[in-house]
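Ticket #4471: structure output looks truncated?

Reporter: J.K.
Steps to reproduce: submitted the chain below (226 residues) through the standard prediction queue, then opened the result file.
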Amino acid sequence: MIVLLAQIGCFVPADEAVIGIVDKIFTRVGASDNISRGESTFLVEMNEAANILNNATEDSLLLLDEIGRGTSTYDGISIAWAITEYLHENPRVRAKTLFATHYHELNSLAGVYPRIKNFRVEVREVNDKVIFLRKITEGTADHSYGIQVAQMAGLPDAVTNRAKEILHSFEEKERKKRSKDEMQFSLFEYTLDEKFREMLGRIDTNNITPMEALNIIAKLKEELDQ
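Returned output as attached by the reporter:
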């Protein structure tokens, strides 16, 4: 609204603003299906996203809200990730974009692409409730606060309390899985490294034939393939 007001010469709600000219404003906000046409919520979302990606230019303004939420988590993350990369890397687009998402995995893109920045809405947690401070700062959000929002909406305590138990169970399983994977990888890395050190330590590089060198390489590869 502010961009549109500025472009037609109206006042904007700010003491001072520098706003560039845009050729189009695209929005992908909300969740709704089209039953009469047999289109699911996700298909409607993808149709709108396709229209945006095929028609936006570097002078456009894009507002994208929760792209990928209408399908499975991994599918949704993959689509949101790919769309973000496309908008950043495609020289035909590279539009100014606000992308709201609960996929925390996308936060890492700011460390890969120079023009991507992470911002969050500041909140405070008080007695298991969240207070939205209506302030935006640079950085990533720590939590999604979905259960707290459900409490604010009036879901029964029995439901939200059970949801917290299930969430804690999932988080604990994920934490144990990550810890186990890291430990297994470290053990494997250490064992393999020691084997290689021992093998290489026995080699007299000043007195070795080409055939012996090839045999050593074959042995090392055999160890890696095990």
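Triage note (M.O.): checked the attachment and the full token line is present. The beta strands are 25-28, 61-65, 96-100, 119-126, 129-138.
Status: closed, working as intended.
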